[in-house]
Amino acid sequence: MSIELTTKEIGTQKIYNNSFSEQSVDCDISLPDYCPDIMRILKCTIQTDITNSKIIGDRATADGNAKITVIYSDEKNNICSYRSDYPFSKYAELTSAYDSALLICTAKTDYVNCRAVSKRRIDIHGVVSIKFKVCGTSCDTLISSASGNGIQLKRKGIDISSSVASACKSFQLSSVEEVGSNMHGIGKVLDCYAAPIVSETKIIKGKLLIKGELAVKTLYSSDTQENETAVLGCSIPFNEIVEAADFNDSCKTDIKLNVIQLSAEPKVDNDGEYRYMNINAEICAHVNAFEDSSVNTITDAYSTQTELDMTYGLYDFRKIECEFSDSFSVRQSLDIASLKPQKIYASVISAPEIKCGFSDNKMEIKGRIPLSLIIIDADGSPVSCEREAEFEYSHSTDTDKSNLECAPNLVISGFACTLSGDGTADFKAEINISAMVFSTSREKVLSALTVPDEMSKKERKSSLTVYFCSGKESLWDIAKHYNTTVEEIMSENGLTADYLENKAMLMIPIK
Known about the structure:
This protein is mainly β. The protein is built from two helices and 24 strands. Strand 16 (362-377) and strand 17 (382-396) form a beta hairpin. The longest helix is centred in the last third of the chain and has 8 residues, at 486-493.
């Protein structure tokens, strides 16, 4: 007699590769004739765009462009800037070919340094980290039931959030924005920052609709050459559809939007003045979809009739405990009194750096926002400094489980830095956060079960055995030891529970 197995497939989110490759940015820049001579370097930044990424065989490749912006002062203390492009191509070796997997490439500037070799030449040394993340959804097959040959099963029901689909889509946004009538014309673009914000999602028949906006903040110098800057803020709306056959209206979606390309270029109006800004961006939307369900697992098994070949495996079962979107404000006074500030010429931020943990049924985030300032001091000379704005945030998880994990997505939707009268810089920022909190349980469950080719029948010892229970024992362990069933022991002894707290004498019927 054979054993009939019932199996269940569980979707699991897999990360096949998560590696970094360093790309050096080493170049020597000679200023064109229209740029003034260098007196002092104030700031050097590298903004990296990923222009193309793909998987070919067992190799992931990424093509990109590092946009180098150097801000400096000339001999008259005028603040000037110059931008140069540094194209590159980088790859990462994979352990195998992942033809159906998703490749997500992002870039981050780790280090940049520059020095003026002469009044016309700048030496640049920098390092950019390219992250190659290869991911997808795979199915694990587990045994949920078995029958035949007197098989006995110890079951455990587990609530899970099964991964049903992973999808990725890139889309482009563009807008032409006019500077206000009360603002100076555009000289040079000093910095451009963009934050993609999701406002609404909806799933309809295998399609996920993502609605939101790209908040863009462009810092530029005035065309008056009077060390004046202005900020042009705008919001570019978007409605995009990400398709995956397994998307359904019961899914919970984790959406991460990455800005992989961003540019802001001045554009002339009908009078030949630079009073328009041409903004172009490319966004990569990465979506993971989950569906809540319950799975019956088998943690132990035996047969009262024959020996069995069984294989057990350790599996991590994940469940979404909570998901939320929120926003909060960051305010901090930064001490710059030692620089004798007259005004703040420019403020540039980097992406927030965070640490996430859990305590007292709350998710707690501690972070900092790196901030670069260019200041005009009391003598009219430009100086630069680096500061950090620290923040804390907490949110209830609605669970007391200890094995929680989360990779929250934080974007700075807006910020400003103003000079106060006491020599401090008042920094304000608005942060949007979206998070999906998972609990993880690791269980040893039955993954394979067969009857040996040469079936060995279990020997029958006697029809009845007396067993003296010492207390705190499971009837499963007793039944397995004596080759009988839990139901037979309970029926023979008039028991209503399968666990014995106290000492007792049991009559064990042998199958």
